[in-house]
Amino acid sequence: MSGLRDRLNRLKPSSPGANPPTVQERAEDHEWIGLDARMERNEWGQFVLRERRYSLDYRHGLYALGDLIGHASVLDVLNRSAGSLSGHEALLFLDTETTGLGIGAGNVPFMVGIGYYQGESYVVEQLFIRNPAEELAMLAYLREKLQSFSRVISYNGRTFDWPVLKNRFILNRIQLEDRHLHQIDLLYTSRSIWRSTLPSCRLGTVEEARLGVLREEDVPGSMAPALYFQYLAEGNPQAIEGVFDHNERDILSLSVLASHVTRLVQGRIRLSELEAGELYRVGAWLDKLELPELAEQAFRQLAERNGDEIRELRMPMAAYFKKKGDYRQAVRIWEDSIEENRNAGKFIPSVEPFIELAIHYEHRMKNAKQALAYAEEALQAARKRISLARGDRKQRLLAENLQKRIERLMRKVDKQMPMLFDVDEEIEPTN
Question: Which of 15, 249, 270, 326 is the most buried (most CB within 10 A)?
C-alpha cells in the first residue's frame, strides 16, 4: 500500500499551477482543439475534458433547457426516500460510455458525461481517458464534482452507470462518499409510461417520439466501445468525435426528459392529446406515485373515449374505479364491455365483466336474481372457451367455480322470493 502511495505522490506537482506547461503538454492540448476539448491536469495525472455551456433558453426538441428551473423539486416524487430537494442546482445529469455492457471489474467507463445548472447556463462536461492510466485522474476530478450535488439523474444509471463507476472508485482505491447522493433513474419512469405504446423505451426512441428530438448522423451507443478501441489503436481524436457528440446529446436529453416528467406530475400536460394506451399508463403511474387527483383525472378522461380506442383497456379501467370505490363508474364500464361484445357479435364474449357484475350485484346490491343472471352468462362463455380449448385446466376450474356460485345464488333467490300461502277466499253471497 505504501508503495502505491509513493508512486501516486510522485505524480503530484510540488505547487500545482506554478509551472508553465511543457512542450509535450502544449502539444497534447493542441491535439484536442479540433474537438473543442483540452487536457485537464490534477495531482493524480491528466485526462481529456470537453466543456460546453448552453443558455437556458436553448431548445433541445420541444423543451428549453431552462424549463426545469422552478420545478426541479417535483422530481423527488420519483424517489420518496430522497428527502427534500432544494432546487435545480442540486441536480447532476449523468451518462457514461463504457468498454462493455456488464458491471464487472473489466468494464471501464472511458467517458463520463455530466450536466448541471450553473448560473444562467446549463453546463455539459465530458471526461475522457486516452488510456487506462488516466482513469485515476478522471475519477478524482469526478469525486470532487459529486460533492456539489445531491441528485444524480440518469437513464438506467441505477443498475448500470452508477454501479460501474462505484466499482472503478473501489478498484482505484479512491474513497467515494455518496450517502448524500440520491439516484433518480428516468428509465423506470419511461417504462411505466411508454412500455406498451412505444417500440422500445431506449432513450433515443423516447426522445424522438415524445420530446421532439431528432438526431442526425448520430453514432449509436452500441458502437462506442469499438470506436474507443479504434482510437486506442490509431491515437486519432477524430475516431472518437462521434462518441463525444452522442454522449453530449444524451446529457441534453436527460434534462428535457426531466422537464417532461415534471409536467406530467404537475398536471401541466394536456391529457386529451395523449393516445388511450399512454393515458392509461400515465394514470396508473400517477396512482402508484400516490397522486390520486391527477390519476383520477386521467382515468375519467380515458373513460370518456370511444369504444374502439379503449376496448382493451376497459377491464383495467374498471378495476381502478372498483379499487377507488367508484362502483357506479365501474359498473358502467363492465356493462359497456358486455354491450360492445354483443354488438360486435362475438361468439365468445369476455367472461370477466359478467363475473364482476355477478359479484357486485350479489354482495353490494344484495340482488341475487340479477347476480344469478350474470353468473349464468359467465358460465355459458366459459363453457364455450372450454369447447375450443380442450384440456384447459384454468377454464375448467373457472367453470366449476361459476357452477358453485350459480347454485349458491339460486338458493339465495329462493329465499328472497315471497312465501305463498293458501288462503280461503271469502265468497260473497249472490242475490
Answer: 249
The residues, ordered by sequence, that sit 6+ positions from 252 with a Cβ below 8 Å of its Cβ are: 54, 60, 65, 115, 122, 124
Residues 104 and 191 in one domain: yes
Helices (H), 102-223: 135-146, 162-171, 186-194, 203-210
How many distinct structural domains can be found in the chain?
A: 2
**Domain presence at residue 224:** yes
Using pLDDT thresholds of 50, 70 and 90, give the confidence band for residue 7.
very low
Domain boundaries, position 127: 22-266
Query: What are the tens digits of pLDDT across the range 190-206?
Result: 999 999 999 999 999 99
Q: Which of 148, 138, 77 shows the shortest CA–CA distance to 116?
A: 148
At 289 the pLDDT is 95
Model pTM above 0.85: yes
| Structural domain contains residue 297 | no
Q: Among candidates 210, 186, 203, 159, which has minimal Cα distance to 78?
A: 186
Same domain for 259 and 355? no
Given 266, 293, 325, which residue is the final one in a domain? 266
* Length of the chain measured in residues: 431
d(CA 348, CA 362): 24
| Nearest to 130, CA basis, from 13, 20, 32 | 32
* 360 contacts: CB under 8 Å, gap ≥ 6: 327, 330, 331, 334, 371
Q: What is the mean pLDDT of the chain?
A: 89
Strand runs labelled E in 12-44: 38-42
Q: Give burial (CB, 10 Å; 0-12/13-18/19+) of 352.
A: middle
Residues 322 and 175 grouped into a single domain? no
DSSP per-residue string spanning 267-295: T-S-GGGS-HHHHHHHHHHHHHTT-HHHH
CATH number of domain containing 132: 3.30.420.10
Q: Is the pLDDT assigned to residue 125 strictly greater than 70? A: yes
Cell 360486435 sits on residue: 344
Q: Between the CA of residue 228 and those of 131, 189, 326, 362, what are the distances in Å? A: 10, 31, 58, 68
Establish if 378 belongs to a structural domain.
yes
In terms of domains, do 125 and 245 share one? yes
| Burial class of 398 by CB neighbour count within 10 A (0 to 12, 13 to 18, 19+) | buried
At 360, the amino acid letter reads: H
Cβ atoms within 10 Å, residue 259: 24
Question: Residue 111: inside a domain, yes or no?
Answer: yes
